[in-house]
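*** Fold description ***
***
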Amino acid sequence: MFKIGDFSRLAQVSVRMLRHYDKLGLLTPSYTDKFTGYRYYTIDQLARLNRILALNGLGLTLQEIADLLGDGNEVPVDQLRGMLLLRQKELARELADKRWQLASVEARLQQIEQENDPDPYEVVVKSLEPLPVASIRLVAPTVQEVGYYCNTLYGQLYRRLREHGIETIAPEVTFYHNDEYTDTDIDMEVATAIDGSALADAPVDDAVQFRAVPGCDLAAALIFEGDFEEVVAPIQSLLRWIGLHKHVPAGPLRELHLSGPAHEDDGERAVNVIELQVPIEPIAGR
C-alpha cells in the first residue's frame, strides 16, 4: 500500500484533492491507521481515480460523479471512451472558435495600428486566365469550421480523382462564393487544377464538378506566407486596398496554395505560401 503522499505522486493528483474525494466518499482510502489517521491506497484504486478525473473533465460535478459511481459501480471502458471522445471533439471545436476569434482580433488590431503606415503586403493588379478545375462545393456552417471542411473536402476530392484516374496539377485553390461577409453558411469550393483536355471527357460524379473557372481582366492579388489561421489579416488588407483604390470585388475570393496541397503534411514544408486573388472592377462600372 502507498501513503497518501506517494499515491498523490503516482496519480498526479494533489493530496488536498485526495482528501476531498475521501470526504465525499468518492475515493475512500484502502486503509486508514486509526492511531495516526494516515491514509493508505492501493495501486488498484488508480482505475477508479482515473474515472473520477475523466468524468469531472467531461463537466460532471463531483456529486453527479458520486451518484454515477455509487455502490461500487464502475463506468464501462467503452462507455467512458465514447464520452471522452465526444468531449474531445467539443473541446477541439471550442478551441478552433477561440483561435479564429483571436486571429480576427489580431487582424483588426493590426489594421488600426497600421492605418497611417504603408501596407505590409504588396498588392499587384493582374489578369487571370481561365482555370480548368475539379472541385467540390459545399456550405460550411460557420467561419470557424472552414478549416475542418477544407481538410475533409480536399481529402474527398483527391480520393475521387484517383478513382477516376485523373491527374492533378498546381495550383490547389479554395473559392469563397458569398457575395457579402457572413459568419455562417460559408459557400466554399475546394478545387485543384487539372489539364484542360480532361474537361471534355470528364466522368459523371455526384460530388465532383469539372469546370473551367472564368478568367478576368482585373484582379487584385497578394502573396502571404504563414499559417492558414493567420490568413484573416492579409484578406482584410487586400479588401481594404481594393476599396482605397475605388474598386469593388467582382468575383469570389480565391485562395491559391502555392506551397502545395494544404491538407497534406509531409513534415518538410517550412511555411505555407498562399496567394489571395479577388477579381475587381471600378466602382463606377457597377
Notes: The helical segments are 4-11, 15-24, 45-57, 62-68, 77-113, 146-164, 232-244. The chain has a mean pLDDT of 85. Residues 77-113 form the longest helix (37 residues). The two ends are 81 Å apart (CA to CA).
